[in-house]
Structure formats: structure tokens, C-alpha cells
């Protein structure tokens, strides 16, 4: 009979994001990666924070259904501009439009993390809010930035951990890695609650 105590469970990151993989690697826990099969389309009228939480849980549940003995992490980030969700731009044109809309504005990046283990019945989620104030960027700055970093796979079209920091006036957060895509303080709290021992 296999040992099903929490410390022996496989940890799986239910995400294909290279940013989340790098962040989770900082905890020095062995983990596998699995792609969640989840429709990320927002529901009509769904608030950005609700969307982030719903998708983080959906991703963790989807992977946990395939790996019921594992502890699974799901996460999602939505940029919130005055209550409107902004997703990953996907290309240069949409990224340009996003940054033009965000210049001089405060954007709240809603980053949710969920941890699910079907075998133990554990399921919890938390949300980290990061307030980001963008500088009043001109079109030339936006174009130079996008050509240099091509952040088309990032919600809000900017990488604060790279050159994108130059676009900003301020960042306010109680969980510093949340803006990159995985709030590690909250992730650690959830993993401990699920029974994992962190180094």
C-alpha cells in the first residue's frame, strides 16, 4: 500500500507558465508541471478578482482530477483597470492598446492561487492584489518597450521583473512575487495548510 501521508504526495504546478515555474522553483521543493485544460473566457459581468479566483481553482481542480493523490497548485492573474479585466495581449497591436489605456492609471493586478488535493479533500484559494501605478507614457516609450521585451504573454503587457519596471511610478503589494504571477507568501501558507513541509 503506498504511503499517502501529505509529505509523500507529489506536488504539481497546474500551469505551463515559465514565470510560475521559476517562482515555484525558489521554494526548492520537487514538483511536476501539468497543463490544465480550462476555458479562460470571462463570464458576463464577472469582476476581475472573481475571474482570477475562479480560474485558479478551475486549473487546480482540472489537474487534480487527473492526479488525485497529488497536491496541485493552480494560479491565474487578471489585470484590473477600473473594474475591467485585461488579459494577455497576445500580440504587439493589442499590447500597444493596453499600455495606452493604462498610462497614468493605477491598475490592480489580481493574482489568485489555489491548492487542491482530491485524496485528502483539501481545497483552498487566496487572492493577492498588487496596485501598480503606470507613468504617463508616450507612444514612443511604449513602442520602444514592446520591441525590446515583447511581453505579449503577460497580463497587462509589462514585465515588472524586467525592463517593464521603467514604465512604472509605484508598486504596492504585501506579496512581492504576486505581480510576476505566483504569490509565494500565500502559496507557502496554502502548501503548509495542505500538509507539505517546506524547507
Automatic annotation (TrEMBL):
Matches recorded under CDD domains: Maf
HAMAP family, A to Z: Maf (MF_00528)
Single Gene Ontology MF annotation: nucleoside triphosphate diphosphatase activity
Catalytic residues identified in the record: 76
Lineage: superkingdom: Bacteria
GO biological process annotation, one example: nucleotide metabolic process
The keyword Cytoplasm appears for this protein: yes
Enzyme kind, highest EC tier: hydrolase
Keywords per UniProt: Cytoplasm, Hydrolase, Nucleotide metabolism
Residue numbers marked as site, Important for substrate specificity: 19, 77, 161
Catalytic activity: N(7)-methyl-GTP + H2O = N(7)-methyl-GMP + diphosphate + H(+)
Cofactor(s) required, per the database record: a divalent metal cation
Name of the protein: 7-methyl-GTP pyrophosphatase
Job of this protein: Nucleoside triphosphate pyrophosphatase that hydrolyzes 7-methyl-GTP (m(7)GTP). May have a dual role in cell division arrest and in preventing the incorporation of modified nucleotides into cellular nucleic acids.
Main location group: cytoplasm
Organismal lineage: Bacteria, Pseudomonadati, Pseudomonadota, Betaproteobacteria, Burkholderiales
